[in-house]
Design goal:
heterodimer, A: mainly alpha, MetI-like fold, two-stranded antiparallel ribbon, globular, B: 369 residues, Rossmann fold, OB fold (Dihydrolipoamide Acetyltransferase, E2P), 2 domains, six-stranded mixed beta sheet, 8 helices, 20 strands, elongated, sugar transport (chain A), transmembrane (chain A), MetI-like_sf (chain A), cell membrane (chain A)
Chain lengths: 296, 369
């Protein structure tokens, strides 16, 4: 359904394309840069975008493979990067699933049920969430330190504790899902309850299947948010084997020696699970799942 | 005993009461149609019966048991929604089977019942289709199918035809009537369309502003509307009303004078009326006959508009007594033109008469004595 346009539009087309190209360059340049750094021998942040010489030394270290340098010294991987990656993926996956479970159920309550102080609670969870997490770090640390004395697997330096701390941050997701639930006609759930379904069955068999696209969006957001989270993870996790990739990568950059090459390889590595989740989720993020149920 | 009884039912939303003291008995096997203008509360009453809204006060009984507090699932009802409200992510088969699956019926029974329903409704070739690929009429049939497979004690229809086009509406209306006969089920049906109400109902309930105005068989309501509202609501085009004054009254007849000074003899029991009282005279469009000159029982007016429908002609006539213009339904071959002055004669027993409180006087109909 192309609209007939005059010739004058040619110029604005060209301008638009130029604009898009510039924007793409802006977005992609840092990405190419980091790939380039990871493939360059030595640990230098600067240099040409296309490396004159390609070396996989950083990648070998990142993947936990030792290599011999030019002088014949055997270089062992300084850090367990793959363990960190596994930690990150594990924590992010579990957190994203739990966040999804918590936020869909609370969003359902906020969207469909009637109870006192509903508006006040909704607004206050959102406002509380605006308080910067970095400022609560000390509180989070002492909470989990104490918690660990009673429930060891939820204490400091445990993945359980970190996941629990991430579950506090669901207000935005609740709002997102609630907005979507409210766009689904109530009739359909009423039909289900007349059909004999109880509230939970209605939620599970009728509402959730229609909300798959938004659930996927929230899952991806929660997954990425957890994967790249730094402040809380950095104070709750200490042992090297326990770290997430976001926290661990920082170890490549200590004061006297910035291992830019190794850092870059780890950074590219951390992008892989995000890409994978995106590709998997994409086919579910489609519109039109609620079409046909009711006459609009 | 009545299948469903409503006793003194009230419903308030916040401080605003929208349903006022509704009393109603719905007998087993009835197709009870709630009809009224929009906002009269007919859908609300249906939702109260379904259990989708809480009843503020009063008793709702089904099969002799008070069900006010029972959730919809436990009331043995099925409902067909105005918006179809199908499950968009399920195909037709699963839409119809959903209630049975929730009730954990055996698979063989589910298959049997869904196939039975899809046979009745002609949905056999669509069982694998998702609702979005169906037309409006097919979707509504799926919704009806979903209602009948569960074999409930009571069917509720909430304006099921209002989203369909005119031809499909007539067809689906017929199908619902046939379904009612075939299943012998009790049904409550809400509509704002009085034609739908007249054709479908075994009992008709006319509602206005959250109150029941009149309950009865459609033809009884048509012939003996209890007040001016019901008289005006039922029938299309609607009844004409004239402002008149009572000149003489006895138990057989009232004689009234319109604002032209013409006298009208009305066959009603008029003993309760007082002379000189301002009344409203009602006459349906099809009861007006063209005549050549003014006598008693004629309405004189000037034609404002002529609508030729083919088999008949509607003329809109400006008269001095009617609040709105009068509409008369006359034979198609009548030679009338815009601007003509016409005389319309009415038989005495075709009149309706309403007192100053808009309540109807009892009509004395010749074929009923």
């Amino acid at each position: 359904m192309a609209i007939v346009t005059g010739k004058r539009n040619l110029l604005s087309h060209l301008a638009a394309h130029a604009g898009i190209l510039i924007f793409l360059a802006l977005v992609l340049f840092p990405f190419f840069m980091i790939i380039s750094i990871s493939l360059r021998p030595g640990n230098f942040a600067v240099g040409s975008l296309i490396p004159p010489e390609i070396s996989f030394e950083h990648w070998k270290l990142a993947l936990g493979i030792s290599y011999e340098d030019a002088h014949g010294n055997l270089i062992n991987p300084p850090f367990p990067v793959l363990t960190w990656l596994w930690n990150s993926v594990k924590i992010a996956t579990i957190t994203a699933f739990l966040i999804l479970a918590l936020s869909t159920t609370s969003a359902y309550a906020f969207a469909r049920m009637k109870f006192r102080f509903k508006g006040a609670v909704l607004n206050s969870i959102l406002l509380l969430q605006m308080f910067p997490a970095a400022l609560t770090l000390i509180a989070i640390f002492s909470i989990f330190d104490t918690l660990g004395e009673y429930i060891p697997w939820l204490g400091v330096d445990t993945h359980g504790g970190l996941i629990l701390s991430y579950l506090g941050g669901i207000a935005l997701h609740v709002w997102t899902i609630k907005g979507y639930f409210e766009s689904i006609p109530v009739d359909i759930e009423e039909a289900a309850s007349v059909d004999g379904a109880n509230t939970f069955q209605t939620f599970l068999y009728v509402l959730l299947p229609m909300a798959v696209p938004i659930l996927m969006v929230v899952f991806v957001l929660a997954f990425i948010g957890t994967l790249i989270e730094y402040p809380v993870a950095s104070i709750l996790l200490h042992q090297e084997d326990n770290l997430t990739l976001a926290v661990g990568s920082k170890l490549f950059l200590y004061e006297q020696n910035y291992l830019w090459g190794d850092f870059a390889a780890a950074a590219v590595l951390s992008g892989l699970p995000i890409t994978a989740v995106f590709l998997l989720a994409q086919k579910w993020i489609v519109s039109g799942l609620t079409v046909g149920g009711s006459k609009g | 005993m009545a299948q469903v009884t409503l006793r003194n039912i009230c419903k308030s939303f916040g401080d605003i009461e929208t349903i006022h003291n509704v009393d109603l008995d719905i007998e087993k096997g009835d197709l009870c149609v709630f009809v009224g203008p929009s906002g009269c509360g007919k859908s609300t009453i249906l939702r109260l019966i379904a259990g989708l809204e809480e009843i503020t006060s009063g008793d709702l009984n089904m099969g002799g048991v008070r069900v006010n507090e029972l959730p919809p699932a436990e009331r043995s009802i099925s409902m067909v929604f105005q918006s179809y409200a199908l499950y968009p992510h399920m195909d037709v088969f699963r839409n119809m089977a959903f209630g049975l699956k929730i009730a954990k019926r055996p698979t063989s029974e589910i298959n049997e019942k869904v196939n039975w329903a899809s046979n009745i409704l002609g949905l056999n070739s669509y069982l694998d289709a998702k609702p979005k690929s169906l037309s409006g009429g097919q979707r509504q049939r799926v919704a009806i199918g979903r209602a009948i497979v569960r074999n409930p004690d009571l069917f509720l229809f909430d304006e099921p035809l209002s989203n369909l086009d005119a031809a499909l509406r007539v067809q689906t209306r017929m199908e619902i009537a046939q379904l009612h006969r075939k299943l012998g089920a009790t049904m409550v049906y809400v509509t704002h369309d009085q034609v739908e109400a007249m054709t479908l109902a075994t009992r008709m309930v006319v509602l206005r502003a959250g109150r029941v105005e009149q309950v009865g068989k459609p033809m009884d309501l048509f012939r003996r509307p209890c007040n001016k509202f019901v008289a005006g609501f039922i029938g299309s085009p609607k009844m004409n009303f004239l402002k008149v004054t009572l000149m003489r009254a006895n138990e057989k007849e009232a004689m009234v004078r319109d604002e032209d000074g013409t006298l009208h003899h009305v066959s009603v029991e008029a003993t309760k009326l007082s002379l000189g009282e301002k009344l409203t005279l009602g006459v349906r469009p099809e009861r007006l006959d063209l005549v050549d000159s003014a006598t008693d029982n004629t309405i004189k007016g000037c034609i404002l508009m002529v609508e030729r429908l083919g088999d008949q002609t509607l003329i809109h006539v400006k008269t001095s007594s009617s609040t709105d213009h009068c509409i008369a339904r006359i034979p198609a071959e009548s030679k009338v033109e815009l601007g003509d002055t016409v005389y319309l004669k009415v038989k005495s027993h075709h009149y309706h008469l309403f007192d100053k409180d808009e309540q109807a006087c009892h009509r004395l109909l010749p074929d009923e004595t």
